[in-house]
Write a structure and sequence with these properties.
The structure is a single chain. It contains 6 helices and no strands. The radius of gyration is 21 Å and the shape is elongated. By secondary structure, the chain is mostly helical. Helix 4 packs across helix 6 (125-142). The protein has one domain. The termini are far apart. It has helices spanning 2-44, 51-54, 56-65, 71-90, 109-122, 125-142.
């Protein structure tokens, strides 16, 4: 009987311990959102073509603190921004000045195709849905906006 009670106690306590750990993670995530909110807002409000690349370090910080339930979404957002950044960097292009309709001289067809593919994926449904989920999760869990 004692063994059965100990087993039952263990079964009941394990989810509670996990929930406490998750609450700590959520609290740390919400604290990080609050700490980065103004800086992220300042970057995104500029309207510059490279805002997402400039915000990448902040997004990576937030991803590192994010609860498990949005880890796939953060991975999608980070991966696609990073891919565009790498494509531009590998082509020797400053993301702030790149204009697809007026590409710099010397840009090869292969480089342009890689940049275009990365930009399409970044602007695609999967990344937009992931970013929308992240923003909604921050609102629901942290009771604030991801950026102002």
């Amino acid at each position: 009987m004692r063994t059965r009670l100990a087993g039952l106690a263990l079964v009941l306590l394990v989810p509670l311990v996990g929930a406490c750990g998750n609450q700590d993670q959520v609290g740390a995530y919400c604290d990080e959102v609050a700490a980065k909110q103004q800086e992220l807002s300042d970057i995104l409000s500029t309207g510059q073509p490279d805002v997402l690349i400039r915000a990448l370090a902040i997004f990576k910080d937030l991803q590192g603190k994010a609860p498990h339930d949005v880890s796939d979404e953060w991975q999608q957002v980070i991966r696609t921004i990073d891919a565009l950044d790498r494509a531009l960097h590998d082509a020797g292009i400053d993301p702030a000045t790149y204009d697809r309709s007026k590409p710099p001289s010397g840009l090869t067809d292969q480089e342009r195709a890689r940049i275009d593919a990365a930009a399409r994926e970044l602007g695609g449904k999967a990344t937009n849905d992931a970013f929308a989920s992240i923003k909604q999760q921050v609102k629901d869990v942290c009771h604030t906006a991801l950026y102002l």
